[in-house]
Specification:
- The protein has 94 residues and is α+β, with helices and mostly antiparallel strands.
- The chain is 27% helix and 23% strand.
- It is built from two helices and four strands, in the order βαββαβ.
- The longest helix is centred in the middle third of the chain and has 13 residues, at 48-60.
- The chain starts with a strand and ends in a 24-residue tail after the last strand.
Length: 94
């Protein structure tokens, strides 16, 4: 995962950057988020060298990018089914 902070949050700049990054073959998803990072980018890479190349070629060279932070997944467990959450009953009484 890449956590990307942009220098300008103008709609046109953000949209252009998101569209460009979404076309990179290693990118699996781009998420516009609130908080310290502006974007979370899910990438799949072969190794650390490949990650370094992706960041250098597609992120650090772009004037819109202020900072890129990485988070590497070492292992995962994934739930295969979604839990069914019952709808909340209305408390209103007529």
């Amino acid at each position: 995962m890449l956590f990307v902070q942009l220098g300008k949050l103008e709609t046109a700049v953000v949209d252009h950057f998101v569209n460009a990054v979404a076309t990179v073959s290693e990118v699996r998803g781009v998420f516009l988020v609130s908080g310290r990072a502006d974007l979370i980018v899910h990438v799949v890479v072969r190794d650390m060298q490949h990650l370094k190349e992706i960041i250098s070629e597609h992120f650090n060279r772009d004037a819109a990018v202020l900072r890129v932070e990485t988070s590497v997944v070492f292992d995962r467990r994934q739930q295969s089914t979604m839990p069914i959450v019952p709808a909340k009953r209305s408390q209103a009484r007529f």
